[in-house]
Design a protein that fits this description.
Helix content is 86%, strand content 0%. The relative contact order is 0.08.
């Protein structure tokens, strides 16, 4: 039991920032991200014996991301309900609230698009996904990413370039349309 606690402490120390960053990125709220981080590690602690320990990092990231996305969906529903209840507000306030609501919807749509891009990228080429995630999303220095992936820095640059070109080809029109609104 003592060695399992030590293992858990090591995992927590190693991945707590990754989990917090994923939760914050997808929820947009730091307080909620802290709660999601705590909940994610609690789930890990509870189900640790039943897990495949070789993919804990992926499990933590996915669990935090899904919890944050669920929070956003609930928040979107609540916003819609609040907007319906506030129909008697004066026109200026309604227009202001409508602008804010539309901006929040665009932000959620953007987040959904980013999620679909990452999912499609992972399905297309796992190395591209890893390179993009580590270098751009997690903001790890590219030299360290290259070393972690076991490739030269030039190879990493090539992977990143090819991945970005593929993303532009597959999602460029949709991304441009979303940002034009």
């Amino acid at each position: 039991m003592l060695t399992e606690n030590r293992e858990f402490d090591e995992i927590y120390g190693k991945y707590k920032n990754l989990v917090l960053k994923a939760a914050y990125t997808y929820s947009g709220n730091y307080d909620v991200a802290e709660d999601i981080t705590q909940s994610t590690f609690l789930q890990l602690y509870i189900y640790y014996h039943d897990m495949n320990h070789s993919n804990i990092k992926s499990w933590l990231y996915t669990t935090a991301k899904n919890s944050a996305l669920n929070y956003r969906k609930r928040a979107r529903r609540e916003i819609l309900e609040e907007m319906t209840a506030e129909e008697s507000v004066i026109q200026d306030t309604v227009e202001s609230a409508e602008d804010e609501f539309l901006q929040e919807i665009r932000d959620i749509d953007r987040s959904d698009l980013h999620e679909r891009i990452f999912e499609a990228l992972m399905n297309k080429n796992r190395r591209w996904y890893d390179a993009i995630t580590l270098a751009y999303y997690m903001e790890i220095p590219q030299a360290k990413v290259a070393a972690e992936m076991g490739v030269r820095i030039e190879v990493l640059h090539s992977l990143l370039h090819r991945a970005k070109d593929w993303i532009k080809k597959e999602f460029g029109v949709e991304y441009d349309e979303l940002n034009r609104l």
